[in-house]
Write a structure and sequence with these properties.
There is one protein chain. The protein is an all-alpha fold. The protein contains 24 helices and no strands. Helix 18 runs antiparallel to helix 19. The chain starts with a helix and ends in a 5-residue tail after the last helix.
């Protein structure tokens, strides 16, 4: 221990008390002890020493050497902040942002971020930029957001570099420029920012601000995916599935889909289910397909709901149940899935799993037909031709049958030939 420092601290020198507290907090030349750190910080803080007040607040915030107390933390941060300590101003702003030890107030948070930001505090510049971006606690302004984000970005804060890149990508507060966006995404990615790595993958995938390169896109998706980024795991999974920028491999696709699926990503759960359903990259298993379809379906994923309905309809991986099939088809159909609408139309037409209703069958066939489903166009055409569940109409029948036939539906083509041959004239 530095005896001279100790003597100064013991004789009431506030700076020495702060330095001794810091030594105890970090175990420098003395045994590490938060309790001793708090003791010396408090002595300096009570003399108005701002650095000590800030550090004492930090101890209260985290329960280092004292009983944890956000109220005490905010009290000491405020005393230091009012003396112009930028770190304390930032910490007090965080308290107001989260409502820790003070009444939550975005306005007060922005006020203290501003004070610290004007002193060059990087995280405050970033948070103030985000406040202006969203309009939380300040009047919304993309221009002001860009101003503060740039200050933090130029000091190598990766989250600010990412956000500034997004501003350039979207043209918010600056003239839109994919090239500038890519430049800032690269800077953030070099600091290990996962979202920036993902964004670069998107830019290379689409050829935005760079020459399109699926190989480069795959590189950045993989880097982010290996750090657990869900969308990147899905994307690199799809790249392997399709052989896009990487050698085609269903096995690798399954590996990455599974990682994202286990984190709850509905897209990946659906794709993993498809792999099990088709036996791509894994041994074929309807049971496992159903498991993953269900997980995605329960999140409202329409394609998975439709496929789960299909499994119940046919008894694939589950005990056959037309009622369950109709239930899942309905959920997907209500979200606009044309295959589910078509299948639900079939169930209502035949009374399978639901009470038979040709009018409801017509309703769902029409919805699917309007989305271009050729089979549904044929069926709704037939309903109009014979007046099942709709008012009989030759013109409507011909309209739908022609649309279906033009898509290659052979039943519709045969019906039109019969109509022409027999000159059938429904009223």
């Amino acid at each position: 221990m530095d005896k001279e420092l100790y003597e100064k601290a013991a004789n009431g020198d506030a700076e020495a008390q702060y330095e001794l507290g810091y030594s105890y907090a970090h175990g420098e030349d003395v045994p590490q002890s938060y309790e001793e750190a708090v003791k010396w910080y408090r002595l300096a803080a009570e003399q108005g020493y701002a650095f000590a007040q800030c550090n004492l607040g930090h101890c209260y915030e985290n329960g280092y050497g004292v009983e944890q107390s956000y109220e005490e933390a905010a009290k000491w941060y405020r005393l230091a902040a009012e003396q112009g300590d930028s770190l304390a101003q930032y910490n007090l702003a965080i308290c107001y942002d989260n409502g820790d030890g003070v009444a939550q107030s975005f306005e007060e948070a922005a006020k203290w971020y501003q004070k610290a930001a004007e002193q060059g505090h990087i995280s405050s510049q970033y948070n103030l930029g985000c406040a202006y971006y969203s309009g939380e606690g300040v009047k919304q302004s993309y221009e002001e957001a860009v101003k503060w984000l740039r200050k933090a970005a130029e000091q190598e804060k990766s989250s600010a570099q990412l956000k500034l890149g997004v501003c350039y990508y979207d043209g918010k507060g600056v003239q839109q420029s994919y090239e500038e966006a890519v430049e800032w995404f690269h800077k953030a990615a070099e600091h290990g920012n996962i979202k920036a790595q993902y964004n670069l993958g998107i830019c290379y995938d689409n050829g935005e601000g760079v020459e399109q390169s699926y190989e480069e896109a795959a590189k950045f998706f993989r880097v982010a995916a290996e750090q657990g980024h869900i969308d990147s795991q899905y994307n690199i999974g799809y790249y392997f599935y399709a052989g896009k920028g990487v050698p085609q491999s269903y096995k690798e696709a399954v590996k990455w889909y599974r990682k994202a699926a286990e984190q709850g990503d509905a897209d990946s759960q659906y794709e993993l289910a498809n792999c099990y359903y088709n036996g791509e990259g894994v041994p074929q298993s309807y049971e496992k397909a159903v498991k993953w379809y269900r997980k995605a379906a329960e999140q409202g994923y329409a394609f998975a709901q439709c496929n789960l309905g299909h499994c119940y309809d046919n008894g694939y991986g589950v005990e056959q149940s037309f009622e369950e099939a109709a239930k899942w088809y309905q959920k997907a159909a209500e979200q606009g899935d044309s295959t589910a609408q078509h299948n639900l139309g079939n169930m209502y037409f035949n009374g399978t799993g639901v009470i038979r209703s040709r009018s409801k069958a017509a309703k769902w066939y029409r919805k699917a037909a309007e989305q271009g489903d050729a089979d549904a166009q044929y069926y709704i055409g037939e309903l109009y031709l014979y007046g099942y569940g709709v008012v009989r109409s030759k013109s409507e029948a011909m309209k739908w049958l022609l649309l279906s036939a033009n898509q290659g539906n052979t039943d519709a083509q045969e019906e039109l030939r019969e109509l022409a041959k027999n000159n059938t004239k429904p009223s």
